UniProtKB/TrEMBL annotation:
This is Hemin ABC transporter substrate-binding protein. It comes from the Bacteria. Residues 26-280 form the Fe/B12 periplasmic-binding domain. The lineage of its organism: Bacteria, Pseudomonadati, Pseudomonadota, Gammaproteobacteria, Pseudomonadales. Keywords: Signal. PANTHER family: HEMIN-BINDING PERIPLASMIC PROTEIN HMUT (PTHR30535:SF4), VITAMIN B12-BINDING PROTEIN (PTHR30535).
Amino acid sequence: MKVWMQRCLWVLLLGSAWSMAAEPLRVVTAGASVTAIVQELGFVDQVVGIDSTSVPLLEERGLPNVGYQRQLSAEGVLSLEPDVLLGTEEMGPPPVLAQLREAGVDVVVLSASPSLETLYANIAAVGERFGQGAQAADLTQRIQADIAALPASPEPAPPAIFVLTHSANGMLVAGEGTIGDSLIRLGGMSNPAADSFAQYRVLSAESLLSLAPQWILTTTKGLEMVGGVDGLLSQQPALAATPAGLAQQVIDIDDSLLVGGFSPQIAPTLRELRETAADQ
């Protein structure tokens, strides 16, 4: 009888341990590009909360919104009882991330560097953290194949600028080292602003006119906020006087492709940009 009871207890403990090990991790994602990686790797069912930039990607799931990725609140995230907070170095503020770590949340911080190499590294890191290594390798190979199949960049590349219109400081122009600059270059165009400055700047009318862009790139949400192409050009007379403004050659890019680095869904947009550049 004693041996039988010991065996029963052993089976119960083994079953309990197996159940605990099999319990899926509860994940909160911060940054649309990170959320898109989770989508592509196929474990979105483990996501219990998202930041505001990820809402358009998972709107149909009705997940709790923990706010903007740069302004997370510890209380909002902890209320979802996550095991993991997955985001990039754009998320914060740092004291909140520290508080979450102290509470036992595994805060995974990926790079937000605006390059395809960073995208591939982030996919690999997410795959490794969640036991999806093979799926991550397959996803990277698919993206690389899509990039390799893009039309060649034209020579010379037409000049373009990338602008952010929803800044409290006014319209910002993307310089060297920004995701706007990387988008322009990968899209088969050239960024004259990158020759003069890094990061984002508000430019004088004279400086803006001197760039002489043939194309203006901006975000879809930002363009909607200013009333479309007509609203953008009416609010920015210097921009309207550039070759791109005079021809109303404005291209809007889905915001979710650019938050926290490039999204794994960026290849179709790069194809459209290269085709546009080639037709110039």
